[in-house]
Amino acid sequence: MGPAFMFSPPADWHPCAPLQALRLEWLAAAGVEVAVLRLDCIDALISGNKWFKLSEHLAAADQVNAAGVISLGGAHSNHLHALAAAGQRFGFATAGLLRGHAQDTPTVLDLKAWGMHLHWLGYGGYRARHDADFWQPWQARYPGFYPVPEGGGGLAGARGCRVLRQQVSQQLAALGWGDFDGWWLACGTGTTLAGLVLAEQGARTVHGALAVPAGHGVAQQVAAILRAAGAHDHGYALIDASRGGFARVDEALLAFIDAAEQASGLLLEPLYTGKALLALQQAVAAGRFARGTRLVFVHTGGLQGRRGIAMATGG
Ligand SMILES: Cc1ncc(COP(=O)(O)O)c(C=O)c1O
Predict the structure, then answer these.
(1) What domains are defined for the chain?
(2) How far is the CA of 192 from the centre of ligand 1 (A)?
(3) What is the pLDDT of residue 260?
(4) Which residues pair with 295 in a beta bridge?
(5) Which of 78, 193, 271 to mutate to test the pocket of ligand 1 (most atoms within 8 A of CB)?
(6) Element holding 112 (H helix, E strand)
(7) Sign of the C-alpha dihedral, residues 222, 223, 229, 234?
(8) Coil/strand/helix, residue 223
(9) Dihedral sign, CA of 208, 213, 217, 220?
């Protein structure tokens, strides 16, 4: 018998995201106040919403005494990055199934350095991930490894994000806010949004800026998570922020990010947080929020992926 694996982080590891005022001219002009919940700051390596989405999956792996954790993602995956970093930090084995053909992106180099076992599935092989028998050969190859769905999704992923509401509540007074009116965040699968909706139970609206175009099933996935939790399907709004396609980056977006970064000091990446902030600016410009509205913008992290994006766009 080898040593017992530790999926739960040590009792004193409770990463809390700082809540910081965001000062931008277009917000001040509209009388809308925004504070950013900095999930990008919780840890040097285990960053963003990915940690919160993983936390309940890891607790479940712990419960069944798993031998390791296996999951899937792309060559720039923030999810695999956080999982590999957690495995290295807390001493459990990890395996990653990757979309496409072998390549050494900065993300993949980190996964290798942190000891994740990697397998490239090609594109067709990756598309089969929803098939009923997909996991069988991998479970034979990695006996006892706990499978975590792509992106750390599902009800367990959402449950891990509920704690964010508490983290905001604890920091409101320091910000000089008595209360706030709603949330604004980027959505890929909608899991993080669903976690906030579960935490709010309709008290505040959670606005999801979609990084993927309509038709990618985010609304259905959010509804399915809420149904699985026995919660009502309300308390949120989905806004198209994809600018014509996931991972599609245009000049106007890059110029907006550059200006926002220079004015606020907040670093963004183009695919999720940059598009989400631009969609917020457009909503504010369209008069969607009354003067005096206070919103929490969740910085979902993903800055590690910027390295690969910068290469791909020549930036
Ligand atoms: C940086 C970043 N922000 C937001 C998201 C979207 O999160 P979710 O899939 O929970 O909607 C992701 C991943 O999908 C991400 O990597």
Answers:
(1) 19-48+156-313 (3.40.50.1100), 49-153 (3.40.50.1100)
(2) 7
(3) 98
(4) 34, 182
(5) 78
(6) helix 106-113
(7) positive
(8) helix
(9) positive
pTM over 0.90: yes
How is residue 115 annotated by DSSP?
Answer: T
Q: Which atom of ligand 1 approaches the CA of 269 most closely?
A: 1
Report how far residue 79's alpha carbon sits from residue 50's, in angstroms, rounded to the nearest whole number.
6
- Which atom number of ligand 1 is nearest to the Cα of residue 77? 16
Residue type, 191: T
**Mean of the per-residue pLDDT values for the chain?**
93
Distance 117 CA to ligand 1 centre (A): 23
**Which string of DSSP letters, residue by residue, matches 39-98?**
GGGS-SSS-SHHHHHHHHHHHHHHHTT-SEEEEEE-TT-HHHHHHHHHHHHHT-EEEEEE
Q: What is the pLDDT of residues 184-205, one digit of tens each?
A: 999 999 999 999 999 999 999 9
- Is the distance from CB of 120 to CB of 94 less than 8 angstroms? no
Distance 272 CA to ligand 1 centre (A): 7
The ligand 1 atom nearest the CA atom of 186: 4
Mutate to test the pocket of ligand 1, among 38, 41, 189, 216 (most ligand atoms within 8 A of CB): 189
Residues 201-230: pLDDT tens digits?
A: 999 999 999 999 988 999 999 999 999 999
Kindly tell me the burial class for residue 11, based on how many C-beta atoms sit within 10 Å of its own C-beta (0-12, 13-18, 19 or more): exposed
Ligand 1 pocket, Cβ-based, cut-off 6 angstroms: 48-49, 78, 151, 186-193, 272, 300-302
The CA distance from 170 to 46, in Å, is 22
Query: Do residues 35 and 110 touch, judged by C-beta distance below 8 A?
Result: no
